[in-house]
Write a structure and sequence with these properties.
Radius of gyration: 24 Å
Order of helices and strands: EEEEHEEEEHHEHEHHHHHEEHHEHEH
Number of strands: 14
Helix content: 25-40%
Shape: globular
Strand content: 15-25%
Largest sheet: 10 strands, mixed
CATH superfamily of the largest domain: Alpha/Beta hydrolase fold, catalytic domain
CATH topology of the largest domain: Rossmann fold
Number of domains: 2
Structural class: alpha/beta
Distance between the termini: 90 Å
Number of helices: 13
């Protein structure tokens, strides 16, 4: 019998993906301490479905909800939704670094912990003030879409806000928390998301009592180093100074009092430095020499290097250059960290030593914790930064860099009771504190609402809570913020 020709072979239809099935969350009971008192709580771990109009599950979003036991009136118990940034990061950093009852053990100076890693009790957790729901956006952690094509739908500024906003709506409905005082906490790109969600949900009947922004970035023009955008060079300068201060690269006059030094640099950056950059190639030679000398003094870099960079110093070259004579680099997320590299002549570091110190410990300890103490069993990889498979959709280039500060302003205008607390680290070269201050000053917020926003700076980096003193202070600051937002002080 002759073999069937290619022309007569039946055409195989592409295999349809298996339908997603909603899973039952895992519920476990635990105890911790609030001061000297026992504190009983329940953790609900699982995934909530995101459906289309036909009821088909398109994606499932992973969450871990910590709720206080024995609450008589759940409507009076605060509820806070938490997420990290990236975009492309799950919620493990805030979860196991600051908010939750367990934290990854770090060295006293926030240095590199040696494997095997350890999870310890966190006496500075936030459960005394609020229930906590940690959310992993689609493509991060255990959150997955039905198909790779469907996953791409969620990977952009607008659709990310919509999908996490839908999760919040669904959680409030399923767990009957619509009457609770509501809060958001986001870190890094999570602050972009939090501001956007506040604006998105206020028009859908969900108003927040308060928003906590940790290492904030709302307007991406402040952090995009490209030709004709001089703003980042101005706004990153105080953090360059703080970094040089920490590594003892400043002169005696500037090396004694960090805060005093930073106030001086901030004023110069917005004044003479900004004016010099605005003049471009028309900057007179005598002014140029004066600016070069000041930049060298404030950054710990050589005058020759500043001259060769045309007075404009980007993040990565700075991280490589500051300690070049020591053959070391400094971190981007936390410039207190120092790294080792092979090519000491390169212009940019080949890795961020601060992320290298944190990622293995947090990833290992989360995977152990969620599968043992929380009882969530899955063969899925808990993806940390590797789950987003295409470039993020930042929106229309004609509209300029992504900016959700307007969404936050609009939410505050519609809900004048909402309070905002912003925490920044002096040694954060990813989202510098001075860029946050600039953004707040350019939101166009009504003067009567400005008192609703408070800020605090910490002697640490992007994840300031890895430094125990900053962790303790952040907890105290947020405790006061939550009480004030509810009129309790």
């Amino acid at each position: 019998m002759e073999a069937m020709s290619e022309a007569t072979k039946p055409v195989e239809e592409p295999k349809k993906p298996e339908p997603m099935v909603e899973e039952t969350p895992v519920v476990t009971q635990h105890e911790t301490k609030v001061g000297d008192q026992d504190f009983a709580y329940t953790v609900t771990t699982g995934r909530l479905p995101l459906r289309n109009d036909s009821g088909e599950i398109l994606a499932q979003m992973f969450f871990m909800a910590y709720t206080k036991d024995g609450v008589a009136d759940i409507g009076k118990r605060a509820l806070m939704f938490s997420f990290n940034g990236g975009p492309g990061s799950p919620s493990l950093w805030l979860h196991l670094g600051a908010l939750g009852p367990k934290r990854v053990k770090m060295e006293p100076d926030a240095g590199f912990p040696a494997p095997p890693y350890e999870l310890v009790d966190n006496p500075h957790h936030w459960l005394a003030d609020t229930d906590l729901v940690f959310i992993d956006p689609i493509g991060t952690g255990f959150s997955r879409a039905k198909t790779p094509e469907q996953a791409e739908h969620y990977w952009g500024v607008k659709t990310d806000i919509e999908s996490v906003g839908e999760f919040i709506r669904l959680y409030l409905s399923r767990y009957e928390r619509w009457a609770s005082p509501l809060y958001l906490v986001g870190e890094s790109y999570g602050t972009t998301r939090a501001a956007g969600i506040a604006g998105h949900l206020i028009d859908r009947g969900i108003a927040f009592n308060g928003i906590v922004l940790v290492s904030s970035i709302l307007n991406f023009q402040t952090a995009r180093f490209y030709k004709s955008n001089d703003l980042p060079f101005i706004l990153f300068l105080p953090t360059y100074t703080a970094t040089a201060f920490y590594h003892k690269k400043l002169g005696r006059r500037l090396g004694a009092d960090l805060r005093k030094t930073l106030r001086e640099v901030e004023a110069w950056a917005l004044g003479e430095y900004a004016a010099a950059l605005a003049k471009g190639d028309r900057l007179p030679p005598n002014e140029r020499r004066r600016v070069i000398a000041k930049l060298a003094e404030y950054t710990g870099l050589s005058k020759e290097y500043v001259e060769n960079r045309d007075l404009r110093i980007e993040i990565h070259p700075f991280c490589k250059e500051l300690l070049r004579t020591e053959k070391r680099t400094v971190g981007r997320l936390d410039s207190r960290f120092k790294g080792f590299e092979q090519n000491h002549a390169a212009e940019r570091p080949d890795h961020d030593p601060s992320m290298a110190a944190l990622r293995p410990a947090y990833t290992a300890m989360f995977n152990q914790y969620v599968r043992t103490e929380l009882g969530y069993k899955s063969d899925l990889e808990y993806t940390v930064f590797d789950g987003i498979k295409k470039p993020w959709d930042w929106g229309n280039a004609v509209d300029g860099p992504a900016d959700t500060s307007e969404a936050l302003r609009a939410a505050m205008a519609r809900n004048p009771h909402m309070k905002v607390f912003i925490a920044s680290g002096y040694y954060d070269l990813a989202t510098p504190y001075f860029a946050t201050e600039w953004t707040l000053a350019h939101m166009g917020i009504n003067p009567t609402l400005r008192a609703n926003i408070t800020t605090a700076e910490y002697q640490a980096g992007h994840m300031m809570y890895i430094h125990e003193g900053s962790l303790r202070q952040l907890r105290a600051d947020v405790h006061g913020f939550i009480r004030a937002s509810r009129g309790q002080i």
